[in-house]
Amino acid sequence: xxxxxxxxxxxxxxxxxxxxxxxxxxxxxxxxxxxxxxxxxxxxxxxxxxxxxxxxxxxxxxxxxxxxxxxxxxxxxxxxxxxxxxxxxxxxxxxxxxxxxxxxxxxxxxxxxxxxxxxxxxxxxxxxxxxxxxxxxxxxxxxxxxxxxxxxxxxxxxxxxxxxxxxxxxxxxxxxxxxxxxxxxxxxxxxxxxxxxxxxxxxxxxxxxxxxxxxxxxxxxxxxxxxxxxxxxxxxxxxxxxxxxxxxxxxxxxxxxxxxxxxxxxxxxxxxxxxxxxxxxxxxxxxxxxxxxxxxxxxxxxxxxxxxxxxxxxxxxxxxxxxxxxxxxxxxxxxxxxxxxxxxxxxxxxxxxxxxxxxxxxxxxxxxxxxxxxxxxxxxxxxxxxxxxxxxxxxxxxxxxxxxxxxxxxxxxxxxxxxxxxxxxxxxxxxxxxxxxxxxxxxxxxxxxxxxxxxxxxxxxxxxxxxxxxxxxxxxxxxxxxxxxxxxxxxxxxxx
Length: 496
Description:
Layout: H1 3-13, H2 16-22, H3 24-36, E1 57-58, E2 72-78, H4 84-87, H5 92-96, H6 104-107, E3 131-134, E4 139-142, H7 146-150, E5 156-162, H8 168-177, H9 187-195, E6 196-197, E7 205-211, E8 238-240, H10 258-279, H11 282-305, H12 312-318, H13 328-340, E9 345-351, H14 359-383, E10 390-395, E11 399-400, E12 417-418, E13 422-428, E14 435-437, E15 439-440, E16 447-449, E17 452-453, H15 454-464, E18 474-476, E19 479-481
Parallel strand pairs: 2-9, 2-10, 5-14, 5-17, 7-8, 7-9
Antiparallel strand pairs: 1-6, 3-4, 5-13, 10-13, 11-12, 15-16, 18-19
Helix pairs in contact: 3-10, 10-11, 13-14
């Protein structure tokens, strides 16, 4: 063999592709560690050992863009569109002019849903429930929310929210992903991607569902609402269910021991790593990471789900339903336990607020579902010193109309969807407590002061977590995407 041929063969053996392929177990392992965000070294440069304990999982950001005010978020999403006129936006004029037609000068040609666009008239209707003033600033709160009313000094109530979507699916999708079209990552997925998790034994993004008694068979929800979109599947929300298996496919089949499972995962990881070296698909490494997370969750999930050791006064605090798995109260208690374990984003969905008819009876039941437990969650976090670095959010995808959908009687009415103005509240770190932000007109139909768009809300949420919403991006199909799309402004007036 000629010298020239030997040199050429050696060059082939020493090229980058060959080097990476021959060191798959070393470089591949480091690559997996990088994907997982695992910390292999202490600050002093020494190698970490098992005795050092969990160090969490890093996100794409090496550090926040600015100092964060909070570490975690608990988002109490009220699916279906709670009526702000029955809960927080007190409008006595609607009772004074009950039954009169909505003036065209107020409606101003706003588009309506197909459920009321065919009505001959739009009779104004005020709330059948009373309002009283509470707190240092005399905040108006409905009699439907006695527990919430007592904690208004801890809340920032935003009465001037507005959105672009008028129907449930696009409106909920817009709030959760920043787009009315399906396929984008949800808020929790963006946070998992950007910031990672402080607990390597639990996912950064968890989801809890409950069905309200106001309209038990109301508007459904879809798993894509907590999906990862075009981000790696490692960042999708993990749903905790009120069932024997709280996380699907987590438990091992009968007859599989811990050591056997460990051996299976190790062999599977080796095969997947070879596949990754051959094809370079990063989703393969995401799958490895998911297997490893599931393995660790087999111990951590049962521990955090089990609330039997909670003292009796805590159950009384959250309400009688707190002992019934799957209820809103039980999920609020579970949210606090997940927050204690440093889960980054805890999303609760409570269904049943879509009250097009029989609203007075339906909303009374629905409010009873959530009032005590929501207030208890804020109070519980506060007494544990956790409210300072936790943000609690309460609200739905849009509000309800000031006119009755269908027949208006002395005791009964319904309300259609209303995206032009509605109410949400927030409590916790970085938010001014005890204030009401924004205002609507006397008819409760249009915003007159300090409008807050959905993208503004999302930008503010990210800001509190130390993220500049314009700088957390992901390049996909030739374009850089972000949660707030091409809009959004931080609402500085509500920041502490």
